[in-house]
Each structure stands twice: as C-alpha cells, then as structure tokens.
C-alpha cells in the first residue's frame, strides 16, 4: 500500500485557490523531491498534509496509510506518523525541549498501542540522538526553539524526527537560512533516518539540498500542479534551465 496517496487535490487559502489538481503517490522508503518556484504552493501542500488550520481542501483525496487525512485532526496525523520539518520553526516559550520530546514521543507510542517509555530508556535514546546531531545538552534544557540560531532550530527539528520516528518526513525548504556546514549536519541527520519503511517529501527550490538528500523521484510543482516528474537528473536540468519553461507550460 502507498504511504501517501494524493489524488486530484485542490486546496485554497483565504478563498484563493492554490493547489489545482495535484496528484502524487509516495511509497514506503521512497524519497520524493518537490521543486518549484516561489509561490508555487509547496508550503501549502505541506500545510495541507499536516492539517494546518486555514488551509482548505476543496476537491480530491489525500490518504495516509489508506486513511483519509481530511477526517483527521492535525495532532492525530502527527500521532499517525507525519512530521513536518518547518521552514521557519516557531519558538515555544514555556515548554522545555526535553519535556516536549517526551510528551510527543509518548503520544505517538500510545497511538501505536505501546506503553510510555521509561525515563532511563528515553534519556539513553535522547543522548544518542543529540550526540549524533552535535546538539549541546544546554539546548535541551531551554524552551523549544527559544533563542536557537537558524542552524540550531533545524537540528532541533531533526532531533524531533529522530526521537519520534515518523513514517513520513516532510522537509519544507530545509536549506533555507542554513550555511553549508549546518546544512550538511541536518541532511546527514535526515539520511540516518532513511529506511525501507520511512518516506521523505523534500521540498526545495534549490538543487543544492538534493546533493545531500538524494531523491528517488523529482517533481516540478508549478501553478498548483505537478507539471513534470522524473529521476534525480531532473533536478539538475531545473538548476540549469530555471523554472520559466515549466511555469509557462502550466499556464
Ligand atoms: P511556496 O512554498 O511554493 O513558495 P506557498 O504555498 O507558500 O508557496 O504559497 C502559494 C501561494 O499561496 C502564494 O501566492 C501565497 O501568497 C499564498 N498563501 C500561502 N499561505 C497563505 C496564507 N496563510 N495566507 C494568504 N495567502 C497564502
Ligand atoms: Mg516560499
Ligand atoms: Mg514555501
């Protein structure tokens, strides 16, 4: 069964149609890159999949593990294994990072019919994951994302993914605001999480990120639809030619 199946998705924001008949199938273990110019609807797609309020599906179907997502609240989708790595992670004052991770992990375990993780096992896992990502202990004691640098916020997102083990990782322009070293660390963190059962939707408008996170498929999103799909060579073609040809095709 497909992990994510999107058929003829139409969606709008504030009554403005953004997605206009988008179809995409992601099977377990696959890495799909979605590339497209600014304003094409890439973030709208990720917000729609995660159920962010204000993003309204007007037509089509989105299924995750065979379940219709439109009937599920955002937190249910997260518990079912969808994780969105935000382009601009928000600061959450008052919620300690460690507490946040433990609460989120237990919610996910509960949804899978598992018991709460015990404190020692949690800390062991947390230590291993933070070490791999070069995250200092001090960061774990701070409120989530508060005062984190751009690179730290991205690493914090990758740490959340490492702890929560989502089945679908959506990376929305993960490279934005990152210098090359921070990008490499974040991308290696993502690559370490790749597995035959876990899929990635890697949204970007630069080919550069795909040198680090190698996709199996590349799709061009223009004017709310996927106008072309191919292998990773398509990303290079886009980098050379730009999006102009694709955008005019879509119009
Ligand atoms: P991309 O991520 O590809 O740059 P977006 O999905 O962010 O594109 O935006 C697609 C279009 O939807 C843009 O025209 C943008 O202005 C509009 N849009 C997205 N989110 C909102 C919002 N919350 N309110 C109003 N317009 C929005
Ligand atoms: Mg944008
Ligand atoms: Mg965007």
TrEMBL record:
<feature type="domain" description="ABC transporter">
    <location>
        <begin position="4"/>
        <end position="248"/>
    </location>
</feature>
<keyword id="KW-0067">ATP-binding</keyword>
<keyword id="KW-0547">Nucleotide-binding</keyword>
<dbReference type="GO" id="GO:0005524">
    <property type="term" value="F:ATP binding"/>
</dbReference>
<protein>
    <submittedName>
        <fullName>ABC transporter ATP-binding protein</fullName>
    </submittedName>
</protein>
<comment type="similarity">
    <text>Belongs to the ABC transporter superfamily. Ycf16 family.</text>
</comment>
<dbReference type="Pfam" id="PF00005">
    <property type="entry name" value="ABC_tran"/>
</dbReference>
<dbReference type="InterPro" id="IPR003593">
    <property type="entry name" value="AAA+_ATPase"/>
</dbReference>
<dbReference type="InterPro" id="IPR003439">
    <property type="entry name" value="ABC_transporter-like_ATP-bd"/>
</dbReference>
<dbReference type="InterPro" id="IPR027417">
    <property type="entry name" value="P-loop_NTPase"/>
</dbReference>
<dbReference type="GO" id="GO:0016887">
    <property type="term" value="F:ATP hydrolysis activity"/>
</dbReference>
<dbReference type="InterPro" id="IPR017871">
    <property type="entry name" value="ABC_transporter-like_CS"/>
</dbReference>
<dbReference type="InterPro" id="IPR010230">
    <property type="entry name" value="FeS-cluster_ATPase_SufC"/>
</dbReference>
